[in-house]
């Protein structure tokens, strides 16, 4: 536990326990949670809206199918003419076995997943470096304040 006599040993400064700081932390983490859970809810709503808007469900939802062409990026013409391209930017060609229809299905490619993963990793690494620098700077500042306080106490004797 941190006491007044050994203030330099305290790693969490008492100023961080002020109600204003705690409220800011709660607000920040609340917004982060809202962003994460809101995105999940929004994607669920989009999925239900798109299913209800469709006059007839795609054949790959109703019957068995065979993938004719693996997941690939949508090119210029496909991206404007095929609605499945607008969701992820990638599409695979599906052949339905019963109705013998060929349709397009939106998919997530491994290239896209890799890019998103490394983008996330890079962001986390950058944040780690930034917050490590902030922690070191804050600790040096606290150590300097504690040293000045000790020096003033010694000088006053």
UniProtKB/TrEMBL annotation:
Primary localization class, coarse: cytoplasm
Membrane disposition: Single-pass type I membrane protein
UniProt keyword list: Cell cycle, Cell division, Cytoplasm, Cytoskeleton, Membrane, Mitochondrion, Mitosis, Signal, Transmembrane, Transmembrane helix
Signal peptide: none
InterPro entries: JTB
Subcellular localization(s) per the UniProt record: Cytoplasm, Cytoskeleton, Microtubule organizing center, Centrosome; Cytoplasm, Cytoskeleton, Spindle; Membrane; Mitochondrion
Biological processes per GO annotation: mitotic cytokinesis
Key word Zinc-finger present: no
Regions crossing the membrane: 21-42, 116-137
GO CC aspect terms: centrosome; membrane; midbody; mitochondrion; spindle
Top-level taxon of origin: Eukaryota
Subunit structure, interactors included: Interacts with AURKA, AURKB, BIRC5 and INCENP. May be a component of the CPC at least composed of BIRC5/survivin, CDCA8/borealin, INCENP and AURKB/Aurora-B.
Role played: Required for normal cytokinesis during mitosis. Plays a role in the regulation of cell proliferation. May be a component of the chromosomal passenger complex (CPC), a complex that acts as a key regulator of mitosis. The CPC complex has essential functions at the centromere in ensuring correct chromosome alignment and segregation and is required for chromatin-induced microtubule stabilization and spindle assembly. Increases AURKB activity. Inhibits apoptosis induced by TGFB1. Overexpression induces swelling of mitochondria and reduces mitochondrial membrane potential.
Family affiliation: Belongs to the JTB family.
Protein name: Protein JTB
């Amino acid at each position: 536990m941190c006491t007044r006599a050994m203030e330099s040993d305290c790693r969490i400064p008492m100023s961080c326990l002020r109600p204003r700081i705690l409220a800011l932390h709660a607000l920040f983490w609340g917004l982060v949670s809202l962003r994460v859970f809101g995105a999940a809810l929004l994607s669920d709503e989009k999925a239900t809206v798109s299913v209800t808007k469709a006059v007839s469900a795609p054949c790959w939802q109703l019957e068995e199918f065979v993938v004719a062409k693996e997941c690939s990026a949508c090119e210029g013409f496909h991206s404007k003419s095929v609605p499945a391209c607008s969701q992820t930017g990638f599409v695979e060609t599906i052949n339905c076995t019963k109705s013998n229809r060929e349709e397009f299905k939106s998919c997530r490619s491994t290239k896209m997943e890799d890019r998103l993963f490394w983008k996330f990793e890079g962001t986390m690494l950058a944040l780690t470096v930034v917050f490590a620098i902030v922690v070191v700077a804050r600790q040096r500042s606290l150590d300097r304040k504690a040293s000045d306080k000790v020096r003033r106490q010694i000088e006053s004797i």
